[in-house]
Amino acid sequence: MEIKVSNNFPRNNEEQKELIESFSTYSELFHECNFNNYTLNFINRNLDIDSLIKNKSSALRKLNVANYNLLLFCKICAEELQSTISVKNGLKEKCDGWLNIIRSGNSFHTLSYAQTIIDTLNRHDFPFIDNLFSKKYVVIKNAFVGLESKYKSLYKLCIYLNEKHLYDVLERIFNILQEDTQSFHFVERVEVAKMQFELSGLSSFNVFPLISLTVHNDKNEFAKDLSDFPLINKLRKLIQDLKPVNMNSDMAIRIGNHMNLYQGYRNYKNFLRLINSLDEVYDPQYQYALIRK
């Protein structure tokens, strides 16, 4: 069946939420929608939201502590750097900005500050990594690497589409999930890109998936053979005739013209990359898409 083209788009995130919640299968599949940084979240109604939030909050608290300690280490490095007043003032400004974001309760947005600070230190030949890996400070790196496995190993199945196909494809995906209860058992949530991003730097639909599914893998049933996971094949068949679009394939495995798959969270992986620890957690043989066995 041909995918329909939509020319009438929701004007804002609330209208987008209302449209998706109006799909006939929605109430059977998901809890009420909630908003994330860049997405609308639709959580499997078979899961207990309170337990899900509690478990995720526990992992994020540990990650936030690691993030804060990395900031403190960067401040020490910035103070030790022998450079011009303007460079040191610039580093101080970035450290202050990083701290303000942590205090606001959303450490997700600190990556760009960390990137700028560490790049500046490296550009001025400061031994950032050597110091971080030293006996005195390696505990900071280990806090990132040692994050609990469930947070690092969940699967993200990302679908990249032209916006005009989004809502028809999404409704068909919901229909597939309703029919394939065995596959839906593994789906923790479906996320849909917001009409309006909070950060303009990530507003391009060409590099941000319009739809993503988070799939848990507690007993490894999902990962035995990705090609045999029924849901992937059904989704691939659903969108195979659509014109290919650009995808963000960094740290991901391409599984079709419109889909890729990876484990963990990109933001977490980017922090690991900043501190030269990505290959301690994820396998370079698979472009760091999959966790090391």
How would you portray this structure in words?
This protein is an alpha+beta fold and 293 residues long. It has two domains: 13-52 and 154-265, no CATH class; 58-145, no CATH class. It has helices at 13-21, 26-29, 49-80, 85-104, 111-123, 128-132, 138-145, 149-153, 166-179, 181-184, 230-239, 266-274, 278-281; strands at residues 34-35, 39-43, 155-159, 187-193, 211-215, 253-254, 259-263. A seven-stranded antiparallel beta sheet has the order 1-2-4-5-3-7-6, with no helix packed on it. Helix 3 (49-80) packs antiparallel against helix 7, helix 4 packs antiparallel against helix 5 and helix 5 (111-123) runs parallel beside helix 12 (266-274). It starts with 12 loop residues before the first helix and ends in a 12-residue tail after the last helix.
Present the secondary structure layout.
Blueprint lengths: L12 H9 L4 H4 L4 E2 L3 E5 L5 H32 L4 H20 L6 H13 L4 H5 L5 H8 L3 H5 L1 E5 L6 H14 L1 H4 L2 E7 L17 E5 L14 H10 L13 E2 L4 E5 L2 H9 L3 H4 L12
Antiparallel strand pairs: 1-2, 2-4, 3-5, 3-7, 4-5, 6-7
Helix pairs in contact: 3-4, 3-5, 3-7, 4-5, 5-12, 9-11
